[in-house]
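Morning. Coffee machine broken again, so started the prediction first thing and wrote up yesterday's gels while waiting. Chain of 454 residues, entered below exactly as on the submission form.
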Amino acid sequence: MDRSYDSLNARVMQDMNEGVLVIGNDGKILMTNNKTISILEKEKEELEGRKFATVFFGEEENDAFNQTILDAIYDMDKVHSNVVSYHTGDRVKYINVISSGLKEDNRIIGVIIVLSDITELVEVREHLKMMRQIEELNEQLEERNRFIRKAFGRYLSDEIVQKVLDTPDGLSVGGNMEHITVLMSDLRGFTAMCESVPPGDLITVLNHYLDGMGKIIKEMNGTVIEYVGDGILAIFGAPVKDEDHGLNAVIAAVKMQQEMEKINKWNEAHGYPILKMGIGINTGDAVVGNMGSEYAMKYNVIGSCVNLCGRIESYTTDGQIFISDATKEEIKTTLTIDDEMKITPKGVKEEMLIHSVKGVGEPYNISYKLKKKKITPLEKKEKVTLHTLEGKHVSTEGTVSYITGRSSEEILLETKVKLDIFDNVVLKGEECDLYCKVTAQGSKGIVLTVTGKN
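Came back before lunch.
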């Protein structure tokens, strides 16, 4: 045995980086080196000459280390390799244990165990693993946010979803007074169209229309608050601040009217009805924010500014854009205005001025044209009964009147009833009822624009 240890001592340097532990067949520790003492944090006298079981078996926290050494002792013919934890005081080390039988004259006389302290490597690995887990959690969170944006973005604008996700109080009830521009649009004759077009086709037509309009509003920094049937309510200037909210709203309106030509070409190609849209725009102060309760809530806008915008929009016929004087005063860019009208909307005490916009000047240079066919005189007058229309209420008493001329969009009417510009009427005839708006008065009669049929 002495020759074996002399030979071993010659090969194993006391200052090597790995610990060396030699255990005999009887389980007694025969030799250690300086690194072993450093790794195990035990004195040389505690180890050499004593049985391994006597030294270590009282330390239950090191059961994994003890079992690895025992496996090596009980099965010396096999090379064992394992990474185990080793507790010493308040510290936990990680040790790579490699063992192999120690032979002399082809006879196994014990086991030699090499110990490597890989604590730093394990900690780095755990740190990297933790970083990777954090990255994976971040990726999952971002994927969740993308899903939320995609899912709720179909119901709310990106700006509103972003506010909910990024702002701590994004879901709290409440709002702020903001100076904004409101845009409302509505399709003419859509209610009547609902009765003649199958529901599936109606949804297809409506979705195609709303998709095109929504993209334009977003492109011009607007936020769609809601779609009400065929109507759109959008605001500019909140929740995203925009100093040019009035101008951007008008540009969006012009682009929306331009887009209607493409939408109607698509409708014709698919056998769907032609759509006609009116747009009203107003600027003022309104409350913007989350409204409702903790059970049901929506991002909304309320105020007289919004109500007035709805009134302005109601004066439009197909293809028209009416803006308030307040919006016009906000815009420094030249606007193409083909008409100005004084109106007294319901709920407004004083007469106000609105402007019919057809385009925006430098540097944008965008405009659109209304394609109206000329009214052709009829060889024989058509007898109809004229009823006034207040909101959704049709007067019960009618007055006999006569259609003297027609185009695809307009009617020339003879009547004894005194009508003002923008009055809404219903003409009841033998074939159908026509919903119309008074748009002009002349020596040959009153010009009505058809807004719907029933």
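The first strand starts at residue 19 and ends at 24. Going to sketch it on the whiteboard this afternoon.
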